[in-house]
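Entry 14: structure prediction run for PTS sugar transporter subunit IIB. Input pasted below.
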Amino acid sequence: MKKIVVACGTGIVTSAIVAGYIGDLLDAHGYAGHYEIVRCSMAEAPDQCENADVLVATTIAPKGITCDYISGVPVLTGKGRADTEKQILDLMGA
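Run finished. Output tokens:
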């Protein structure tokens, strides 16, 4: 089971969009039931990342995270989205 932390400034709006997108992506590739998505604010991200596989965030990586980081901005803008999708899918295959 992979733990994916999705964070934005407040943990409300853009993290919900990105989390939904990641869930749909993973389910479409046969990973339903093999992951857990946790949403939080950037202030909460370091604590949430202590036992997570990856942080997907709509801001730069905060100091103090102990897991891998993937930018979630391409999910929102569309620019570079394929690379972000590949990173997320590669994580699931690891």
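Notes: The domain at 2-93 is CATH 3.40.50.2300 (Rossmann fold). Will compare against the previous run tomorrow.
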